[in-house]
Amino acid sequence: MKAVVLVGGFGTRLRPLTSTTPKQMLPVIDRPMLEHVIAGLARHGVDEVVLSLGYREDVFREAYPDGECAGVALKYAVEPEPLDTAGAVRFAAEAAGIDETFIVVNGDVFTDLDVSSVWRRHHEVGAEGTIALTPVDDPSRYGVVPTDAEGKVLGFVEKPPREEAPTNWINAGTYVLEPSVLQRIETGRKVSIERETFPAIVADGGLWAVRSEAYWVDAGTPATYVQIQLDLLDGLRGDPVDGVADDASIDPSAVIDRSVVMSGARIGANAVVRDSVVSMGAVVRDGALIEDSVVGPGAVVGTGSRLTGLSMLGDGASVDDHASLVGAKVPEVD
After folding, report:
1. Computed from CA positions of residues 52, 134, 218, 231, in that sequence, does the dihedral angle turn out positive or negative?
2. What is the pTM for the complete model shown?
């Protein structure tokens, strides 16, 4: 079973963390986000993944020089220019020689979706494409997907105003597609699978959907990047995990409350880290407070400083002693 994983975006909402690292290579507890995603696919029988690459493709190659991730064989397809979602799918699938039913997933979605159930339903109804749906409170940020009672998709409305959304079931970023879908995607230009390809399949009666209320988070924002990690600590996806790395150095007087402290990080005396992520090799000096925030790899938080309100420090950034930052990004981004 083969899958295309879309990882070519710039991750602009997560800057400055993504100024040097692609979003899917940001660490989650103890390994890159991508490894969590691919491990989830492997549990449903996927044995080959094609990474649709763009931004900083070298980082992926360097991380997996043997062409394997989470026990799954990797292939790389590097877009010569951004091709949008459908263009990326066609380019990656053709580069890997995919000529049978395949899976597509967004590489920044954390989910416990039963991919096997989507695969089975796709074949039961003879669909050209089948997409997983998840319910949300506010569908205005997503592609909204009304269906009939059997699951046939009736329309595909990309990011409607909240009050105009025909349903709160949205595109969950996991698809099962027939290779015929690739021929629907024009080459040589950007093509959106949500705005062009799926509506065309709907018009021909070939798009189906499977609803799922399984765990699902789009991890592309600062808030959700923190959330996916705290959810693992809280046991929302199986047994709770320990978020403090064995080789992290934590002063006995420091308080670590529902937080992730990664490998090589150092937490000083009387520091408090709460509902936050402290990345590899970062330093939180004495008396500092980190709350609802992210300290990036190798970053340094000065003595007595306060980081709150989803502040984010980029790779190697520093904060002066006794500074107070609320919702800040260091360094600043456009």
Report:
1. negative
2. 0.92
Which of 23, 159, 190, 329 is catalytic? The answer is: 159
On the CB side of 222, CA atoms within 13 Å amount to 23
In angstroms, how far is CA 231 from the centroid of its own chain?
14
2-221: CATH topology: Spore Coat Polysaccharide Biosynthesis Protein SpsA; Chain A (3.90.550)
Residues 6+ apart with CB under 8 A from 18: 10, 11, 12, 26
Query: Where do the CATH 3.90.550.10 domains begin and end in the chain?
Result: 2-221
d(CA 120, CA 141): 29
Residue 329 among the catalytic residues: no
* Tens-digit pLDDT profile for residues 22-72: 999 999 999 999 999 999 999 999 999 999 998 888 899 999 988 999 999
Quickly count: other Cβ atoms within 10 Å of residue 167's Cβ.
16
CATH class of the structural domain 242-330: mainly beta
